[in-house]
Amino acid sequence: MSGLRARQKADRHRRIIEAAAALFREAGYEGAKIEAIAAQAEVSIGTIYNYYQNKGDILGAIVSMEVNEVLNAGRGVVANPPANVGDALDTLLGIYVEHSLHYLSKEMWRQAMAISTQLPDSPFGQAYTALDRELTEQIRALIARLQALGLVRADIDGPALGELVFNNMNMMFIEFVKRDEAKIPELRAAIRRQNRILVAAIVVCEESGADRRNP
Amino acid sequence: MSGLRARQKADRHRRIIEAAAALFREAGYEGAKIEAIAAQAEVSIGTIYNYYQNKGDILGAIVSMEVNEVLNAGRGVVANPPANVGDALDTLLGIYVEHSLHYLSKEMWRQAMAISTQLPDSPFGQAYTALDRELTEQIRALIARLQALGLVRADIDGPALGELVFNNMNMMFIEFVKRDEAKIPELRAAIRRQNRILVAAIVVCEESGADRRNP
DNA sequence: CATAAAAACAGAATTGACTCAATTTTAGAA
DNA sequence: TTCTAAAATTGAGTCAATTCTGTTTTTATG
Predict the structure, then answer these.
(1) What is the structure's pLDDT at B9?
(2) What is the mean pLDDT of residues B44-62?
(3) Which among A114, A164, A202 has CB closest to B118?
(4) CB-based contact (8 Å) between A170 and chain B?
(5) Which of A5, B14, B40, B85 could cysteine-pair with B19, CB 3.0–4.6 Å?
(6) In sequence order, what are the residues at sequence separation of 6 or more whose Cβ sits closer than 8 angstroms to the Cβ of residue B188?
(7) Does domain A55-202 have CATH number 1.10.357.10?
(8) What is the pLDDT of residues A187-208, one digit of tens each?
(9) Cα distance between residue B208 and residue B188, in whole Å
(10) Cβ–Cβ < 8 Å for A116, B117
């Protein structure tokens, strides 16, 4: 079946995304005019709007690809985490942070975040929220894993902790993309500093400090 | 000196803000056309752009008023906090959350947040970041107070903890304004649930559970 | 009082995202 | 092959934020 129509459709999708990604990088999101994207993709303006509801959704498609890569990379850490709570969190969040600027510039991130709060019910807004939730779930999965391994106290509210860790990282990341001069190593260090408080509270104590209510 | 010009200027500022606030509430941010704001404020379009760089900055002025009220209300809690770490945090963050929809609708918050990430260097973007910082500082001040009162362990990294608490609350608040059906009590409960983990980790132990490295 | 410079104002013109009615292309039946 | 309905494409037109340029008002000065 996969007829001509389906092939052309996939091809146009790809051409639009590629043109947009190139122009977003070159000229920035605002600077990339729909007209220019259409011209570069060799389709008309109307066709673009047939494929995407609005300019933001085009960016959204690019963001989704990026975040899905990150989620994929994270799976390895969850499956096989470092045998130390602090390092485990740092490794997973480090992957998120380090991957984040592969395809997306800070300006693109800013736009994507802005659109996702501005239009939470648009296709992209919903997709972005779903991606955030998947990241949260991945952090929760890591914590559950660490609890199963006996590295994190069993009486800790894992889901709440996971959300706390994600929220903090996400907020720090938002501040990071808002300041062009902010650097990734600083971001990681700041996140580590905050997580240290949490780690101290949740590790099963060796001789370090936290008590055990459930020995 | 305070000549005619200065008086007219203040008056026009006020009229523009009042007109915009009314229209934003009635018609929403997008629905409130600049032309309509200008008409209602009895100035021309050009004049509005003489006073504010863009539509977002008008909203920004309104947001600033709101947040400053919240900061003011928070000072009382910092000066005289409940004698229990969990309640102290809950009271302060509760004030923030409960005040938040006095003047601003969720839609206005969404727009304000979006603009502040989209244009972090615009006047409003910078003002919004500054307000976030002030809120963070207020939470840090509360924690410092609780440490001084001997309710929070002295060996806790107070500034990092304050930022963590703020980041978590802020992220939860963002999710809250993104979903129109979300209610304030649920938001408060969710924040409390996450803070419980932190509280357990930082309180000076009575017989409750946390150990003391510095007795 | 004049008057020139500075500041503020007005609203027409511009710009760019998005819409929509007309046209073209495709898939499949006869 | 030919025809038709459905699907997709097109780009000129609409709408609203922002810019621009000439005009008016205010202030400071002789």
Answers:
(1) 83
(2) 95
(3) A114
(4) yes
(5) B40
(6) B90, B93, B94, B97
(7) yes
(8) 999 999 999 999 988 887 654 4
(9) 24
(10) no
For chain B, what is the radius of gyration of the CA atoms? 21
With contact defined as beta carbons under 8 Å apart, do B168 and B70 qualify? no
Quote the ipTM score.
0.89
Whether residue A168 lies within 8 A of chain B, CB to CB, comes out as yes
CB contacts of A113 in chain B (<8 Å) are 114, 117
Tell whether domain B1-51 is in CATH 3.20.20.
no
A131: how many CB neighbours lie within 10 A of its CB? Answer: 19
Contacts of B201 in chain A (CB under 8 A): 197-198, 200-202, 210
| Residue B178 and residue B204 in contact, taking contact as beta carbons nearer than 8 Å | no
Which residues, at least 6 apart from A23, have a Cβ–Cβ distance to it below 8 Å?
A31, A32, A36, A37, A40
Report pLDDT digits (tens) over B62-71.
Answer: 999 999 999 9
Query: Residue B31 forms beta bridges with which residues?
Result: none
| Amino acid in the structure at residue A187 | L
Q: A128, A66 in Cβ contact below 8 A?
A: no
Residue A2 CB lies within 7 Å of the nucleic strand C: no
What is the Rg, in whole angstroms, of the alpha carbon atoms belonging to chain A?
21
The full set of domain ranges for chain A reads 1-51, 55-202
Among the partner-chain residues B110, B120, B160, the one whose CB lies closest to the CB of A194 is B160
Is residue B210 within 8 A of residue A211, CB to CB? The reply is yes
